[in-house]
Specification:
The protein is α+β, with helices and mostly antiparallel strands and 88 residues long. The chain has two helices and two strands, in the order βαβα.
């Protein structure tokens, strides 16, 4: 269904689970994002966390350090997908 969106629309894809205690690797994030990039093209895909970093239901708020590290991993994954990281 999303495939039929106009080419001018960008699509945010939730690529990390902010509730995990560990930071997901850029490689894990890339693996999740590849299908969306294949469907929509890299220029239309936005990599996002599944649901922000604040409290949801009875889960605690993510630590600032954890949020920063996760965002850093998302940025690296985006660079890999865009071909801006040598050897990837």
């Amino acid at each position: 269904m999303l495939k039929d969106l106009p080419a001018t629309c960008r699509i945010g894809i939730g690529v990390v689970n902010q509730k995990l205690e560990r930071v997901e690797t850029p490689e894990e994030i890339v693996a999740r994002a590849r299908r969306a990039v294949e469907l929509f093209g890299a220029e239309r895909v936005l990599l996002t966390p599944d649901c922000g970093f604040a409290t949801f239901a009875d889960s605690p708020v993510a630590s600032p350090r954890g949020a920063e590290d996760t965002l850093r991993a998302i940025a690296r994954a985006a660079a890999i997908l865009a071909g801006r990281v040598p050897g990837q």
